[in-house]
From TrEMBL:
<feature type="binding site">
    <location>
        <begin position="194"/>
        <end position="198"/>
    </location>
    <ligand>
        <name>NAD(+)</name>
    </ligand>
</feature>
<keyword id="KW-0443">Lipid metabolism</keyword>
<feature type="active site" description="Proton acceptor">
    <location>
        <position position="158"/>
    </location>
</feature>
<keyword id="KW-0444">Lipid biosynthesis</keyword>
<feature type="binding site">
    <location>
        <position position="98"/>
    </location>
    <ligand>
        <name>substrate</name>
    </ligand>
</feature>
<protein>
    <recommendedName>
        <fullName>Enoyl-[acyl-carrier-protein] reductase [NADH]</fullName>
        <ecNumber>1.3.1.9</ecNumber>
    </recommendedName>
</protein>
<dbReference type="InterPro" id="IPR036291">
    <property type="entry name" value="NAD(P)-bd_dom_sf"/>
</dbReference>
<feature type="binding site">
    <location>
        <begin position="19"/>
        <end position="20"/>
    </location>
    <ligand>
        <name>NAD(+)</name>
    </ligand>
</feature>
<dbReference type="InterPro" id="IPR002347">
    <property type="entry name" value="SDR_fam"/>
</dbReference>
<comment type="similarity">
    <text>Belongs to the short-chain dehydrogenases/reductases (SDR) family. FabI subfamily.</text>
</comment>
<dbReference type="GO" id="GO:0004318">
    <property type="term" value="F:enoyl-[acyl-carrier-protein] reductase (NADH) activity"/>
</dbReference>
<comment type="pathway">
    <text>Lipid metabolism; fatty acid biosynthesis.</text>
</comment>
<keyword id="KW-0520">NAD</keyword>
<feature type="binding site">
    <location>
        <position position="13"/>
    </location>
    <ligand>
        <name>NAD(+)</name>
    </ligand>
</feature>
<dbReference type="InterPro" id="IPR014358">
    <property type="entry name" value="Enoyl-ACP_Rdtase_NADH"/>
</dbReference>
<dbReference type="GO" id="GO:0006633">
    <property type="term" value="P:fatty acid biosynthetic process"/>
</dbReference>
<keyword id="KW-0275">Fatty acid biosynthesis</keyword>
Length: 258
């Protein structure tokens, strides 16, 4: 029943085959969506080649550089989408970053620049991309972002990323209210800990994963594939009544008290 045939999707945040965004892109492709995939450009073109080789089997219509700290690149990305597609239906936001030294030790040691960097890339970027997407999502659509339990509970070493994810979740609600009259739904998935390039920067990530495996009702953590399936659902007509929500895909860990 989950059919995204004819839908056009922009997927951000793929870094390698462990990325949650990679799991989402695969599920969208399986459901029939046409893809535009962005990558983080660098001077040596490492991500362009790595991500390009990875996503080649998905046959993306557009493959574009996009650093969300650069407004000109954001505008160029959406100009390319407008030129090729005219309009599109799905925006997947899988972007988060904090300096590694902000993800260990005392939260109060967070630097001013580190705070601004984490909030800018991990939270503000959703708002900025949604602003650019709004005039192109003329037939309504779905925006999905990725968050984590550290937004509402204290997670050792998660530190400033917890603040960034809290801001991200608040942004989901405000964007859902703004874009709802246009038929655009905005939701977040709070995924359990997964070993990714981004999460590897968090001190004690393997201990976090082991704890979830021992405590969650399903006695395991989740996979990129499972998060991808939830994202595809949120982008489909099956989720037409859902907006402004945070869905926990964490093997049930969020419900546990002890």
């Amino acid at each position: 029943m989950l059919d995204l045939t004819g839908k056009k999707a922009l997927v951000t945040g793929i870094a390698n085959n462990r990325s949650i965004a990679w799991g989402i892109a695969q599920k969208l492709h399986e459901a029939g969506a046409e893809l535009c995939i962005t990558y983080l450009p660098d001077d040596r073109g490492r991500f362009e080649k790595k991500v390009g080789d990875l996503v080649a089997p998905l046959n993306p219509t557009l493959f574009l550089p996009c650093n969300v700290q650069d407004d000109e690149q954001i505008d160029a990305t959406f100009a390319a989408i407008a030129d090729r597609w005219g309009s599109f239906d799905i925006l997947i936001h899988c972007l988060a970053f904090a300096n590694k030294d902000e993800l260990t030790g005392d939260f109060s040691a967070t630097s001013r620049d580190g705070f601004a960097t984490a909030l800018g890339i991990s939270a503000y970027s959703l708002t900025r991309l949604a602003r650019a997407a709004k005039p192109l999502m003329t037939g309504g659509g779905s925006i999905v972002t990725l968050t984590y339990l550290g937004s509402v509970r204290v997670i050792p070493n998660y530190n400033v990323m917890g603040i960034a994810k809290a801001a991200l979740e608040a942004s989901v609600r405000y964007l859902a209210s703004e874009l709802g009259p246009q038929g655009i739904r905005v939701n977040a998935i709070s995924a359990g800990p997964i070993r990714t390039l981004a999460s590897s920067a968090v001190g004690g990530i393997l201990d976090m994963i082991r704890h979830v495996e021992e405590t969650a009702p399903l006695r395991r953590t989740v996979t990129q594939d499972e998060v991808g399936g939830t994202a595809a659902f949120l982008c489909s007509d099956l989720a037409s009544g859902l907006t402004g929500q945070v869905l926990y895909v964490d093997s049930g860990y969020q419900i546990m008290g002890m």
